[in-house]
Amino acid sequence: MKQAYATTVAFNVTDPDSPTGEEIQRFSLSIVVETNPKRAEQRAAQNVMRQEQGARIRNVLVLPLDIARIQAELAKP
């Protein structure tokens, strides 16, 4: 069954403004819908690799989201 996951990917890229090629750390936050957390982790990392040329993935954090609970909380006055 599919589940929504909140993902955070930490990665390094070369700073385009640095004359010495210094690396900077960046983060990408996203929601991924997948069948299991491992696939969500892989997909989040792949998305960053597609969007950020030369990115070096450092860490991926995956947290399941309870959509029904979120909707119930939002419906409260």
Q: Flag low-confidence runs.
A: none
Q: Specify the biggest β-sheet.
A: 3 strands, antiparallel
Percent strand: 35-45%
Number of domains as seen in the coordinates: 1
Mean of pLDDT: 95
CATH architecture: Roll
In the sheet with the most strands, the strands line up as: 2-1-3
Q: How many E-type strands?
A: 3
The percentage helix is 25-40%
CATH level-1 class: Alpha Beta
The secondary-structure element order is EEHEH
The backbone outline, from C-alpha atoms, is: elongated
Radius of gyration: 16 Å
By CATH, the topology is Ubiquitin-like (UB roll)
Overall description:
- With 77 residues, the protein is α+β, with helices and mostly antiparallel strands.
- Strands 2-1-3 form a 3-stranded antiparallel β-sheet, covered by helices on one side.
- The two termini are 31 Å apart.
- The radius of gyration is 16 Å and the shape is elongated.
- 31% of the residues lie in helices and 43% in strands.
- It is built from 2 helices and 3 strands, in the order E-E-H-E-H.
- It has one domain: Ubiquitin-like (UB roll) (Roll), CATH 3.10.20.
